[in-house]
């Protein structure tokens, strides 16, 4: 079962710091990820204010300018947010970078991993039992379709809490990655540009799941 373990090499000095929160937030904040394949518009959730405010802070600082989607797995997700990806040579293994802090988990049961969900990458439970999120790395779910029977098996095997009608409808109509529910903070969703996510997810990749052709992006506020 695929996981979103963020770091390939655990940095020796990784400081946990509460992100600076902005007092300027308004509801329905939309961000725009610009790529060579088109734009992805994402709504940031108000139910996850720490993650929302942190992403807005980083966007305003220019942190997300000219980075790469460094990890791409078809029928699963596309991942970015590693500052070391900026200008990285082809073939270099990426995924261990960040801003130097983590964000406390904001795992909200009503926010789940349907197709288009924006969530925070993190280290694994063995070194991160509090499930704190990376300060900058994120992934966008592509996922796949599930039948009601498959969801029922997942639930009966205690691999998922009881699915809500909303989850069942989403996972059987647009798809997603239900096995990640409850383990990672979901803090937004794509409202325009799912076809761009599909295009990026389908790209050929190297053994590290990095696209053979660099997929550069920048993120701005709408």
Model description:
- The chain is α+β, with helices and mostly antiparallel strands.
- It has one domain (30-221): Cyclophilin (Beta Barrel), CATH 2.40.100.
- The protein has four helices and eleven strands.
- A nine-stranded antiparallel β-sheet has the order 3-11-1-2-10-7-9-5-4.
- A hairpin with a 3-residue loop joins strand 4 and strand 5 (77-80).
- Mean pLDDT is 91; it is low at 7-26.
Which stretches of 5+ consecutive residues score pLDDT under 50?
7-26
The N- and C-terminal alpha carbons lie at a distance of 35 Å
What is the gyration radius calculated from CA atoms? 16 Å
Number of strands: 11
**Main sheet strand line-up:** 3-11-1-2-10-7-9-5-4
- What best-fitting shape do the alpha-carbon axes yield? globular
Question: Biggest β-sheet, characterized?
Answer: 9 strands, antiparallel
Residues in β-strands, percent: 15-25%
Explain briefly what this protein structure is.
With 222 residues, this protein is of the alpha+beta class. Helices cover 18% and strands 21% of the residues.
Chain-wise SSE layout:
Elements: E1 30-35, E2 38-44, H1 49-61, E3 67-68, E4 71-73, E5 77-80, E6 102-103, E7 117-120, E8 133-134, E9 138-141, H2 148-156, H3 165-173, E10 186-192, H4 194-201, E11 216-221
Antiparallel strand pairs: 1-2, 1-11, 2-10, 3-11, 4-5, 5-9, 6-8, 7-9, 7-10
